[in-house]
Amino acid sequence: MLNLVVNTLDELISIQKQLIRYAERKQTVLIERKVDELTELVKEETKLVKQLGQLEDERQQLVADVLEEHPGLTFSQFAEQIPDEQVKQELHSQLKTLQMLLTELQAKNKVNEKILEDSMSFVQHMITQVTKSKQQHFNYQSPAGQQKSQSNNQGFFDTRA
Asked: CB neighbours of 104 closer than 8 A, spacing ≥ 6?
């Protein structure tokens, strides 16, 4: 039973590493504004997240089964009492690795979220600039020309269209 937990943790670590690679690729794609590639990455990432959820459910069931045999103990307490020192060390190492990978993935996702928010803010700003009135001129005009053009208050694009 304990070997199944160890194997499941190995699979979880593998998927977490793949998700980190996807997050790094997404960062590049977001910066380069490659929407089609981003869509494909999100589809692939969704499949991995689904796999991760299934493995996590399996891990929880295995841990519950192990703890049924040792009532009154938490998994951490159980892990401390494992007689086989090699399995004990491997289990601790896997849990620590999994925790570090999760922290790294969260940090990368926060960076990607910030890049996405900045991109959306930029697009909104550009839309505002293109649709607002001509009170702000894009080219130099003489002061005499400014008085005449201020009476025409249409934007760069006709926003009524």
From this structure: 20
Contacts 24+ apart (CB under 8 A), 103-106: 104/20, 105/16, 105/19, 105/20, 105/23
Give 144's contacts (C-beta < 8 A, 6+ positions apart).
Answer: none
The answer to whether 105 and 23 have CB atoms below 8 angstroms apart is yes
How far is the C-alpha of 92 from the C-alpha of 60, rounded, in Å? 16
The model's pLDDT over 6-62, given as tens digits with 9 standing for 90+, comes to 899 999 999 999 999 999 999 999 989 898 999 999 999 999 999 999 999 999 999
What is the C-alpha separation between 122 and 116, in angstroms, rounded? Answer: 10
Is 155 strand, coil or helix?
strand
Q: Is 133 helix (H, G, I), strand (E, B) or coil?
A: strand
Give me the torsion for CA of 48, 119, 160, 143, rounded to 10°. Answer: -170
Residue 56 and residue 129: Cα distance in Å, rounded? Answer: 48
Contact between 112 and 28 (Cβ < 8 Å): no
DSSP alpha helices (H): ranges in 33-84?
35-69, 75-80
Cβ-based neighbours of 27, under 8 Å, separated by 6 or more:
108, 111, 112, 115
